[in-house]
Amino acid sequence: MDGHMAPPLNLEAIRADFPILAEKVRGKPFTFLDSGASAQKPRQVIGAMVRMMETAYANVHRGAYHMSEQATEAYEAARGAVARFLNAGDVREIIFTGSSTNAINLVAHSYGRGVMKPGQAVVISEMEHHANIVPWQMARDAHGLELRVCRITDSGELDLDDLAAKLADGKVGLVAVTHMSNVLGTVTPAAQIARMAHEAGAKVLFDGSQAAVHRRVDVREIDADFYVFTGHKLYGPTGIGVLYAKGALQEAMPPFLGGGDMIAEVSFERSVWAPYPAKFEAGTPPIIEAIGLHAAIDYVTAIGMPAIEAHERALVDRAMARLPQIEGVTLLGRAQDRGGVFAFALDTAHAHDVATLLDRAGIAVRSGRHCAEPLHARFDVESTCRASFGLYTTPAEVDLLADALQQAREFFR
Amino acid sequence: MSGGLFDDLRDLYQEVILDHGRKPRNFKRLDDADRSARGDNPMCGDRMELFLKLAPDGHIQDAAFQGRGCAISMASASLMTDTVRGKTQDQARKMGENFRALAMTGICPDCGGDIAEDMERLAPLSGVHDFPSRVKCATLAWHTLNAALDGGAKEASSE
Ligand SMILES: Cc1ncc(COP(=O)(O)O)c(C=O)c1O
């Protein structure tokens, strides 16, 4: 993969871009290993949002005056940046939403209920985030869809034989699976999954909330029908998410929310929907957030997604080499293809106790079930700690985690 | 040899707590329980089921629990089942109220009188007040106790 030939990151310069990394926690340097929950923001993103509010802000698509035209242009330029980031063929395939959660709910509503027929099935997997489980349960209950759950293997990879079996009867209308697990770090073989889904007559949605942060995504290369990610994990602001959806599908789908901006014509008798993607962007959109997301995309693109992928892979390899050597530490899943996220457990202490100890050392990890309760049930563990890396994570921080875990094991003998 | 890194956490993880967390007392199902309730902190994955045996006059004759959770939640349930045994329901509720205040603020508003000795035993858990995200671990058992005393049909949560 091209990632492995990328030049190393200039970590010192990168870290200087993130003001929060200079903060101290309980007198210790802030070791932030929870980017998978939400990433920190570089000055470039913060600055772009402030600049917009100070110099170029107004509502979009509404005013026939200079500021509104400027804001509209900036908002649409952000759409263009997202399209290039995902290598979409057409900017109109990019819908701005409030988050990944909103984007998946949009598809569950407008495609799951709006296009799919009762009796058809949706396939998800055992390693989904709740955001890619619950909307399908709601669509199942409201619209008579069937929900099928594709198994994962003990190493934490999608069981492709099981996927084939789940697709075999031709009743599946949509395969909705993660492109990268937020717990195990597993990257799924998206192109292969899409091929299998398409051969069975199904469409495919990838939850790219994690994947889009850790590697280059090309929606045309993998032939995704829907692709979802969220701004705040990509060093951008909260309040913005992205849904990539092929034009023909958007054409066929009824709107999700009704309101301003999504209509071409309104009378009290009826409304005519605006052409896509506007028909899926009801109300005032996250304008400032779109500007922030654009800056975040420019930021990671300038560093290079392949370089970021290689950097994080090296960090994971380092962690995978050190952690299993600590007595009592186990790792959840052992996927071959993975990004900068992994979950672990200590035999003598609950994840919460471990997280409290690590916090004392200035280290922030997530503990609990990480919005993936069924996955924890699958591995028969109550809860885990999860470390996740960002482009600013250093090898020294991985060592710090390992050292602190060693001491935590001694504390909870 | 616990490593200097975590020495200041000994206030939170006092030896009593580690001991009760590791070897919880009254950790069993009471087959002849008169009341029971489940407690759940969905975010942390703490889960317990509490069993109460009531005497004819209504006081708590026996208390036991089962479950999985962090050291704090297990120790709290263990200490709670030890201390409410023999108490009237009103005394147990009053202890719970005071314990919640203790866990949140580190100060016990009304810990004298007939519950003084028992509140003393619970005092090691007061260290959680410095750890806002962990307070609910300590209070889960007491929320579950209230649910059991209220009739036990519903699920308790300290979130
Ligand atoms: C894999 C995955 N899917 C979906 C989400 C939901 O993202 P958001 O909360 O921004 O909607 C997350 C993050 O929490 C995630 O990791």
Automatic annotation (TrEMBL), chain A:
Its cofactor is pyridoxal 5'-phosphate. It holds the Pfam family Aminotran_5. It comes from the Bacteria. Residues 32-401 form the Aminotransferase class V domain. Keywords: Pyridoxal phosphate, Transferase. Belongs to the class-V pyridoxal-phosphate-dependent aminotransferase family. Csd subfamily. This is SufS family cysteine desulfurase. The lineage of its organism: Bacteria, Pseudomonadati, Pseudomonadota, Alphaproteobacteria, Acetobacterales.
